[in-house]
Specification:
Growth Hormone, Chain: A, 15 helices, 466 residues, disordered N terminus
Length: 466
């Protein structure tokens, strides 16, 4: 075989490897989106109150975000291939179990377990990309394609969720089983074996502390909507103590879950914070829109999904337009523009009326699609650039943790405001408007996180993306 043939074979294998890993990202996106669309149908089928309905989403997010650091660390310690494939098999099994769940409590439990499986799957997958492609233009393009297809999974999942729900809500559990099985068959021969030479500690005490802190924080915010103020305060204080204990553990541990040196990079910290704000605003925003369209306006799940499909514009633009913009303007200027679009999207929907036609909603939804086009992939690049190969799983876990932690906080806070407004006597539409203030505030905070770095050093994280 000649050198040209070897190079062609290598490129084909790299392309197929990227396709397998993108399939996992697509799977994660489509899984979340289908459930978001199916929520009102699940509520009716199982007779669930809003608070319990929210926990179908929050349970997944808590499992996902709470175990993400442990998942990333496990990939670094025991091998990315092993963790990726094992998590994928568990994801398949738990999703199949969810299809026969008899009640809301079981659905919530299954979603928590599915989130935990995803917490090991996703950082391992991103780490395989960042260690399989050389840092620079080739890796950046792979990451942007990965992010774009993950976004495509979410966007197409909205439509798939609408279609599947029309046949029965249980199909939103069974469909991911088929897709995950296909990804498993493709990934098995392609993911390279890891050379794990040294066993390091997983820092289980640290993982328990940070997971507890995440769970307690979200529970404290959610409890504020229907519980006592004192109860929320106590939960918040315990969460704070858990975070402090986690920090102390990381300083004292010989092999900490999160080495403090990893948090001293300004661009990476900004990327984590930006990702958290973007996810928090989006999850709260999307939750209210689905309730508005289906429960106030009476739209079907499929009509709602088609209405939100415009957000999928990022699946087309992220791999094509975003690399050009990053090369021309710098990574952080593009991120800041994306954050500005997110804040604008949430603000535009704040004036929602009972009889809004779709064209009145379109500017907000289009701005949200552009926000993800400009922010999501570049934030991923900013979080993983310059990190040693041995810590790629962990830094991927940190990124996804902040994203999912932000999503949990945003969803819980938005739900709390909506429920509290309703309890205070606000009408259904007014309660939605009140709740939409939460994503607006989060969007502004995200922009504030990105602007200083874009202003001080717009080219510091720019790449020569081809």
């Amino acid at each position: 075989m000649g050198a040209t043939d070897v190079k062609s074979t290598s490129r084909l294998r790299a392309a197929l490897l990227l396709a397998a890993l993108c399939g996992a990202a697509f799977l994660e996106g489509i899984d979340i989106a289908m459930f978001n669309i199916a929520l009102p149908t699940i509520r009716r089928a199982l007779d669930l109150p809003t608070v319990e309905l929210q926990w179908i989403v929050s349970g997944y997010v808590i499992g996902y975000g709470g175990f993400m650091l442990l998942g990333g660390r496990t990939a670094d310690v025991y091998g990315r291939r092993r963790v990726f494939l094992t998590a994928l098999v568990i994801f398949i099994g738990v999703s199949a179990l969810g299809g026969i769940a008899p009640n809301g409590a079981t659905v919530i439990g299954v979603r928590v377990l599915t989130g935990i499986a995803a917490a090991f799957l996703m950082p391992a997958g991103l780490a395989i990309i960042t260690t399989s492609f050389p840092e620079g233009p080739q890796r950046d393009r792979a990451v942007l394609i990965y992010a774009g297809l993950g976004a495509a999974g979410f966007s197409l999942g909205l439509v798939a969720g609408g279609l599947l729900t029309s046949f029965g809500w249980r199909w939103v559990f069974f469909a991911p089983v088929v897709l995950a099985s296909a990804v498993l068959l493709l990934a098995l021969p392609l993911i390279p074996r890891d050379e794990v030479t040294a066993r390091r500690s997983l820092d289980l005490p640290g993982a328990v502390l940070v997971t507890g802190a995440v769970v307690l924080t979200v529970t404290a915010i959610e409890n504020a909507a229907h519980g006592t103020v004192l109860g929320s305060v106590w939960l918040g204080l315990i969460a704070l103590v858990s975070f402090v204990g986690f920090g102390a553990r990381q300083r004292a541990a010989a092999d900490p879950l999160v080495p403090l040196a990893l948090l001293r990079s300004g661009p990476q910290v900004n990327a984590y914070l930006g990702a958290g704000c973007l996810a928090a605003g989006f999850m709260g925003f999307q939750f209210i829109i689905v309730l508005y369209l289906q429960e106030l306006r009476g739209w079907s799940a499929l009509s709602t999904a088609l209405a939100l499909l415009v957000v999928a514009i990022d699946a087309i633009l992220a791999p094509t337009l975003t690399p050009i913009l990053v090369r021309r303007f710098g990574l952080w200027r593009v991120i800041a523009a994306g954050m500005a679009c997110a804040a604008l999207s949430f603000l535009l929907f704040l004036g929602v009326e009972r009889d809004w036609v779709y064209l009145s909603m379109l500017p907000s939804l289009l701005a949200l699609g552009i926000a993800f086009t400009l922010a999501y992939g570049p934030l991923t690049i900013a979080a993983t650039d310059g990190v040693e190969e041995s810590a790629q799983g962990l830094t991927s876990g940190l990124l996804y943790t902040t994203f999912q932690f932000g999503a949990a906080i945003g969803l819980a806070a938005t739900t709390a405001v909506q429920v509290a407004a309703t309890a205070a006597g606000a009408g259904q539409l007014d309660s939605y408007r009140a709740a939409l203030l939460v994503p607006v505030i989060l969007g502004v905070i995200g922009l504030a996180v990105a602007l200083p770095r874009a202003w001080r050093a717009p080219q510091e994280c720019a790449t020569a993306t081809a």
